[in-house]
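Repro:
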Amino acid sequence: VQLQASGGGLVQAGGSQRLSCAASGFTDDDYAIGWFRQAPGKEREFVSAIGWSGGSIVYADSVKGRFTVSRDNAKNTVYLQINSLKLEDSAVYYCAARFYGNGWLEASYAFWGQGTQVTVSS
């Protein structure tokens, strides 16, 4: 099983970015994907999660209204559209996969990608 996060980069505040999480090695689509992020000197925090069918979507309060998660099971890819970027959104963004448990809990996730850096400049 492998998760590959991509799409990060340097973007100005107020701009947009789309992150992708490509999954491989799963025998079926029955897994949920979560996005987490970690800023320098801070603990990793939950951002968003989406169920295997594209439902059961949840967001952290800090990103509601600005971030949109979606998935394309035909491409085995989950997307995180980030709009109205703020300086505090700068972090390494990780995607992770789970089969059980609560979507906002790190401990629920069995598989993790390597992360992609998003840097927001003023």
